[in-house]
Amino acid sequence: MSLESADKREVTMTTQDWRDNADVQRLLEQGKQTGALTIDQVSEALSRHEDLSTEQFEDILQAFHDEGIQIIDQPRGADLPDRVVDGAVGDTVVPTEDELAEAESPMDDSVRMWLREIGRIPLLTFDEEIRLAKRIAAGERARQILKEKGESLSPEEKAKYQRIIESAQRAKDLLIRANLRLVVAIAKKYSGRGMAFPDLIQEGNIGLIRAVEKFDYRKGYKFSTYATWWIRQAITRAIADHSRTIRIPVHMVETINRLVKASSQLQQELGREPSMDEIAREMGI
After folding, report:
1. Which of 66, 74, 176, 204 sits CB 3.0–4.6 Å from 183 for a disulfide?
2. CA separation for the pair 202, 204 (Å, rounded)
3. What is the CATH number of the domain that holds 281?
4. Which tens digits make up the pLDDT trace of 185-202?
């Protein structure tokens, strides 16, 4: 049965009614027949549900697990070369360094240099992802301890927890950098839909950062499963918004990137959402 819904209207799912949603039911039916679904099939079917929360997405994945349906990175029995299998996520083939450098999409030299740079970053194994995720989780716990007990801790204890937080931030950066090629691979699927390729990558990067912040390794999902959904959500929402708003000039992409980075860094340091004034001071504007 095709996963494509005949009804193209945007649908808002609530916690109470998602199990009865037609798209979810189609996924469940197909999954029961084949025993597995690719993350691309799941992401595509759920992509139009713009209000789907992280908890609801995880709840849906859990429902598939309860029915014995596996969420896999690539179609079973796919007759692909080893290089492609190693770099595949769902139906999305993660490009190599040379393929990134030779991308056909129109872009300036700085973008091409960036693509070549990320092509040199090795992909992570599942065990490496788990180790990084554990460091990130430890950082969150350390931040919470400093927030709740900071006044009563000794200087040595504070320094210890601060080192854990810094290690967590490095782990986040590594997890993000190792998955930038996945962003490019997904962004290529949306070329020609009204947004410049560098802008698609930028939106996908924001989705990737969000995935790293929300990923919970204890639920048993591979990071690529989680990241693919967040990246696609970020890109498709940006395309929808783009059709209704004034386009941001390409030269502003770097400024936006700095803003996102400054906001993320301040949130890590402050333990809360920073104000616009705090972000402006951090950026020196």
Report:
1. 204
2. 5
3. 1.10.10.10
4. 999 888 888 888 899 999
User: Can you say whether the dihedral through the CA atoms of 185, 191, 196, 199 is positive or negative?
Assistant: negative
Q: How confident is the model at residue 211 (pLDDT cuts 50, 70, 90)?
A: very high
Task: Say if 108 falls within a structural domain.
Answer: no
**Residue 50 pLDDT:** 66
Residues with Cβ within 8 Å of 230's Cβ and at least 6 positions away in sequence, in order, are 207, 208, 210, 211, 214
Helices (DSSP H) in the chain: which residue ranges? 22-34, 39-46, 54-66, 82-86, 97-101, 109-119, 126-149, 155-177, 180-188, 197-214, 223-242, 253-270, 276-283
27 within a domain of the structure (yes/no):
yes
Q: pLDDT tens digits for 216-259?
A: 888 877 888 889 888 988 898 888 777 665 556 655 667 777 88
Residue 57, domain extent: 1-72
Distances (CA, A) of 28 to 6, 224, 232, 272: 17, 21, 21, 38
Is residue 80 assigned to a domain?
no
Boundary of a domain, candidates 72, 90, 120: 72
Last residue of a domain, which of 52, 72, 92?
A: 72
Q: How many domains does the chain have?
A: 2
- In the structure encoding, which two tokens stand for residue 265, read together? 């860094």
Residue carrying structure tokens 């209000």: 51
65 touches 27 (CB < 8 A): no
d(CA 99, CA 116): 9
- Model pLDDT, residue 5: 38
Residue 96 lies in a domain: no
